[in-house]
Amino acid sequence: MKILRIAIIIAIVVLTISVIQPKSYAASVSTFDQMKASIDNFLGIGRNGQTGIDAGSLRNVVNPVANILTAIGVVVLVAVTMIMGIKYMFATPEEAAKLKQQLIGLVVAGVVIFGAVAIWKIIYGILNGAGI
Q1: Which of 16, 75, 85, 106 is the most exposed place for a label (fewest CB within 10 A)?
Q2: Which tens digit of pLDDT belongs to each residue from 17-29?
Q3: Do 67 and 22 touch, CB atoms closer than 8 A?
């Protein structure tokens, strides 16, 4: 019975990921080898004594990592929300009150994840517009 629950949860998470993930994002994610080569190239520029980082190279290094971390955060938020929702449906009133308190932490985590993405995009837009 426990294996069936785990299989259902995994199926729901995979389905949720496939629905949430836009097609353009799936096409833009680099492979690990491409990301590693880009990071090694980025680090090599600094080791060779070249100064200055242009916005394009910074975007090429940071964006794939930020996209992966954001996707992981969204998946975790969705999974935890679903689990808490299922627990809430079958909870006693005392357990439901505890779950409501835990929901505050879930909302804060969502705000942090999406706030970090928004702050990064704002900072990048300002620096890219300033020509830095």
Answers
A1: 85
A2: 766 665 544 445 5
A3: no
